[in-house]
UniProtKB/TrEMBL annotation:
Subcellular location: Cell outer membrane
UniProt organism field: Pseudoduganella dura
Gene Ontology, cellular component aspect: cell outer membrane
Name of protein: TonB-dependent receptor
Family as reported in the entry's similarity comment: Belongs to the TonB-dependent receptor family.
Keywords in alphabetical order: Cell outer membrane, Membrane, Receptor, TonB box
Segments forming domain TonB-dependent receptor plug: 58-165
Region annotated Disordered, chain positions: 1-33
Superkingdom, natural source: Bacteria
Pfam families for this protein: Plug, TonB_dep_Rec_b-barrel
Record bears the keyword Isomerase: no
Family annotation (Gene3D superfamilies): TonB-dependent receptor, beta-barrel domain, TonB-dependent receptor, plug domain
Species lineage: Bacteria, Pseudomonadati, Pseudomonadota, Betaproteobacteria, Burkholderiales
Length: 984
């Protein structure tokens, strides 16, 4: 039968799993011990117990449900919950720092999957995406988790938001565990930390991990308390070759007058183009090229305290507190080159989407940038909840659950949540990038660090903040109506508050804030680039520019602070944020569901339910008033803001969400089922922000900004699921599932150009036009700036600085009266898009008799009618995260050994419809990873463990419209863990 709400059913399933893994002497729900004189039964433990519990969960649930159950308390199948979830058919993960962080289910992206903790909606925060709703699993350790349930079909009794799936994380309870304790420790060795510059690497690659759980009951099972805790350190490195700012375009072969287009036939420079894109082709050019070496140190602390009181067998109350803290310190160095799209030499692939095989710009004394960063963040989650379950009579059961939960992510360093110091040598000559390798290969002519010493030329320091708070109360019941029917009912009140804020302080003198004399060259250490990319094709290409210079970030920051006399410039603070979004969503819900058992020739079960959900939205945002714009570098036009004010907008919506579940036992071991239901997924927070935000820096062509729409409707999905399941053994099954989702009300991006009513730009103004008349061309902004500074210094808006080391003028050129109005590219959102997703899942789980060997395998096929048109232009809507996936897991277990070898594969998928340059796709290429875990029972209480993650040392690559248009190529490294666990 369906539970009153997610909490009730989840506890029952968790209790079943715990009993399955602890043997015949386990306590039942009332705390009673099984009769030792009862007939002997086969005791299943370890991996096989987990497989059997998971199988029972799938078999006995309403609708389409999968899950993962812990092998034993304190021992989840993987070290990361997301890594475990990817073993389930239809579930794919997005990785961050080499481990799972967010999940995509059946082609539906992370923002549209709901995560519950013991049936409660959980808040989330993520500085990498201040506007998202996706839960970050990397914040949670797995030691206290007893199981995860994945509801793939809609349910009337769970909070909406899980169009892909609702994932319920279950933790252990003391009255289920009884008296027990265990403690474990591991030594973690992350090989990726060994492949970093010494300034970025942690001092040691070996880090500790400890965890423990303790549970006790007393007064004949009336009281119970449990406590669990874990602490993990991890030192790691991630090295990445990137086209960081994306691919400009797409352009057509006949397009002119736009920065980035290649010369037309017969125009100057056209003779330098090989295999020019023809008239029907589109093409793009890279904005820049970067190589990052990032080292991170993470400390993750998790804990949970649970108290239970059961005065009699009919009433159970639970009070629990859950805490997690994830702290990450990151240092990095970067080698990069920026393209200004002047005179170029290039060779191209064939169309219809043409990509450069190589792209070269002919320049002299431009900057070779070697940036560095040093920042830290922390994410803290807290949740306190109360639950009571009361069996009023044999026909009526009531439940109540309430919780207050928060998630906060913020900086953990005075240098901010992200930062960058730009150090350069002005000795870059002709610059070429080859794109026919796994990673892009940069070549630079004429580099001379003696003639043009390294110096600091610019910086930015960021402070990001996000806080989500959820207050939720849920009440429900189950009432037996007739002999074979039951009414489930309930209501819930949910209040979600989300705030995200951001500030960036920036030094804009990218042409040379100070002089080389301010920076002793002993502050820089010469190093070789290719060694840090040894797993990527192209790292050993003789054409690769190898010279990099690293430095101590704190010392260099202090040096530039002293040289400029502006120490406060490098300490970001949210006292004066660039934007501040605050959204409140108040939801009220009521649901009913009638479950009926049908005594037919083939026994059937039906569940017919409906949920009514009403939400009021209040969205407030800090909007800045633009007072002017300054042209400070070739393509940098930061805006001048004169003030800020909060503006608020409101929205509301309501939905009836029906659901129907049906299953039939064709035979005792063969079941078929069907489910139909409606679900919704709420819009992202940037889509419903309360005002217009103009980004701090514009470019030569326009500024950019966003405007929210709090009246957006949620995405609605109508879901049909069919399944056939054959349970031919206690731990063996094979199943086939088919699904179809019809999605509507997707928020499409509406991008429009708007003119400022009061702010002007120097681009296209009188000074600009005079420079063009003197012989400069539109795309040569260095020439234009030099002319303006040398001929109009002291005139309104023109403030000339000292020339930089390359001899080019520096300073600011402001928009003045009579100049053209600033253009803004404003992105907003409307409900206008729809899509269909369909697919199939095949699962096989088999134990080979009593040999101890077993196998788990699954494959998921997903398809949609809405994909990105690589040959198209402009803004496009396409489903992200859509991909096939597969798992193969080999198992061996006996009284001493417990071995699991897993291969997880995910096919290519679209991860975004934009890159930094504009409306261009980002495709993550196929990825396959091998993991291994080995356990050895030294005694009945002591187990030794070995785990290996990414044993095949897989790399990851992302490309744009053409596979030659690489966006990033990333390498990390295998991770090994050796540990022990002792059970008391």
């Amino acid at each position: 039968m369906a539970p009153a709400f997610g909490q009730d059913g989840a506890q029952a399933a968790a209790q079943s799993a715990a009993q399955a893994s602890t043997g015949p002497a386990a306590q039942d729900a009332a705390g009673n011990v099984a009769d030792p004189t009862a007939p002997a039964t086969v005791v299943v433990k370890g991996i096989r117990a987990s497989m059997q519990s998971t199988l029972n969960l799938k078999r006995n649930s309403d609708g389409i449900v999968d899950g993962i159950v812990a092998d034993d308390i304190g021992k989840f199948p993987d070290t990361n919950l997301a890594e475990s979830l990817q073993r389930i058919s239809g579930v794919s993960i997005d990785r961050n720092r080499g481990e799972g962080a967010q999940v995509t289910v059946r082609g539906v992206g992370p923002d549209l999957n709901m995560v519950l903790l013991n049936g409660r909606q959980m808040p989330t925060s993520n500085l990498g995406d201040l506007a998202g709703r996706a839960f970050d699993f990397s914040n949670l350790a797995s030691e206290a988790v007893s199981q995860i349930q994945v509801y793939k079909s809609s349910r009337a009794d769970t909070p909406p938001g899980g169009i892909g799936a609702t994932l319920n994380i279950m933790t252990a309870r003391p009255l289920e565990l009884g008296n027990m304790a265990s403690i474990g420790g591991k030594m973690v060795y992350d090989t990726s930390n060994d492949n970093l510059p010494k300034e970025d690497a942690a001092k040691r690659s070996y880090t500790p991990e400890v965890s423990g759980i303790y549970s006790t009951t007393w007064a004949d099972g009336m009281f119970g308390v449990s406590v669990s805790a874990s602490y993990q350190e991890r030192n790691l490195g991630v090295n990445q070759a990137q086209i960081t700012n994306g691919w400009k375009g797409p352009y057509t072969a006949t397009q002119t007058g736009v920065t980035g287009v290649i010369p037309l036939p017969g125009a100057p420079g056209s003779q330098n183009i090989t295999n020019r894109p023809d008239g029907s082709d589109v093409y793009s050019v890279p904005q820049n090229i970067s190589y990052f070496m990032r080292g991170s140190q993470r400390q993750r602390t998790n804990g949970q305290l649970t108290f239970q009181f059961r005065p009699n067998k009919d009433l159970t109350t639970t009070l629990d507190y859950t805490y997690s803290l994830n702290k990450v310190q990151t240092k990095y160095h970067e080698l990069s080159a920026w393209f200004n799209h002047g005179p170029s030499v290039s060779s191209w692939t064939d169309g219809p989407v043409a990509a450069p095989i190589f792209y070269q710009e002919n320049v002299a004394n431009q900057d070779i940038a070697m940036n560095g960063g040093d920042f830290a963040t922390k994410s803290e989650n807290k949740s306190i909840g109360f639950n009571t379950q009361w069996k009023v009579s044999n026909d009526l059961r009531l439940t109540f659950d309430a919780h207050h939960s928060t998630a906060v992510s913020q900086k953990d360093s005075p240098f901010g949540s992200n930062n960058d110091l730009a150090t350069v040598s002005f000795s870059r000559g002709n610059t070429r990038v080859l794109f026919d390798n796994e990673m892009p290969v940069l070549s630079i002519d004429g580099a001379d660090f003696n003639r043009a010493p390294m110096q600091v030329t610019g910086s930015w320091f960021q402070d990001g903040y996000q806080r989500m708070e959820i207050d939720q109360a849920q009440a429900g019941g189950r009432l037996k109506l007739w002999e074979a029917s039951e009414l489930n009912f309930g209501l819930s009140l949910t209040n979600v508050k989300n705030r995200s804020a951001f500030q960036q302080v920036q030094s804009d003198s990218w042409g040379g804030a100070t002089s080389p004399a301010d920076y002793p060259q002993s502050m820089f250490r010469a190093d070789s680039l290719g060694q840090y990319f040894d797993k990527l094709g192209g790292h050993d290409n003789p054409a690769l520019f190898q010279q990099i210079h690293t430095f101590n970030f704190a010392e260099m920051r202090q040096r530039v602070s002293d040289a400029t006399g502006k120490p406060a410039l490098y300490l970001p603070s949210l006292a004066n944020p660039d934007y501040d979004r605050r959204t409140t969503e108040k939801s009220r819900a009521l649901y009913f569901q009638i479950n009926t058992e049908w005594d037919t020739a083939m026994p059937m079960h039906t569940g017919l339910g409906v949920r009514y959900e009403k939400t009021d939205v209040l969205s407030t945002a800090l909007s800045q008033t633009v007072a002017g714009v300054n042209w400070v570098a070739q393509n940098e036009l930061p805006f001048v803001f004169s003030g800020k004010e909060f503006t608020s907008l409101k929205g509301k919506y309501h939905h009836f969400l029906p659901s129907l579940d049906w299953d039939m036992n064709v035979r005792d071991d063969f079941k078929v089922r069907a489910s139909y239901g409606w679900t919704i997924g709420r819009p992202r927070y940037d889509q419903i922000q309360g005002g217009t935000n103009i980004n701090p820096t514009g470019n030569i062509n326009y500024g950019t900004g966003t405007r929210g729409n709090p009246a957006l409707e949620p995405v609605k999905s109508k879901n049909l699921d069919l399944s056939a399941e054959w349970y031919y053994g206690r731990q063996s099954t094979v199943s086939l599932g088919l699904f179809h989702k019809s999605l509507s009300n997707y928020a499409g991006q509406s991008v429009n150009m708007e003119s400022s009513p009061s702010v002007t730009t120097p681009v296209g103004g009188a000074y600009w036009n005079a420079a063009l008349a003197s012989g400069c061309i539109n795309t040569d902004t260095t020439c234009i700036r030099n002319y303006i500074f040398r001929n109009f210094n002291g005139q309104p808006g023109v403030v000339r600085g000292a020339p930089n080391a390359a001899g080019n003028e520096t300073g600011t050129i402001a928009g003045i009266a009579g100049n053209p109005a600033v253009q803004y590219q404003i992105t907003s959102f409307v409900n206008e898009k729809s899509a269909n997703v369909k697919g199939a899942e095949v699962n096989w789980q088999h134990m080979f008799g009593d040999t101890g060997f077993g196998i788990q395998a699954n494959y998921t096929y997903v398809k949609s009618n809405l994909s990105f048109d690589n040959a198209g232009s402009g803004n496009q809507f396409a489903l992200v995260g859509l991909s096939d996936s597969a798992n193969v897991i080999g198992i061996y277990e006996n009284d001493k050994w417990s071995i699991r070898a897993a291969y997880n594969w995910r096919d290519e998928f679209l991860t975004s419809v934009t890159d930094q340059a504009g409306p261009n796709p980002q495709y993550v290429e196929p990825y396959g990873q091998v993991d291994l875990s080995i356990g050895y029972n030294l005694t009945k209480n002591l187990t030794l463990q070995f785990e290996g993650i990414n044993l095949n040392d897989e790399t990851q690559r992302v490309h744009g419209r053409n596979k030659m248009m690489v966006l990033s190529a990333t390498q990390g490294g295998p991770r090994y863990m050796l540990g022990a666990r002792y059970k008391f």
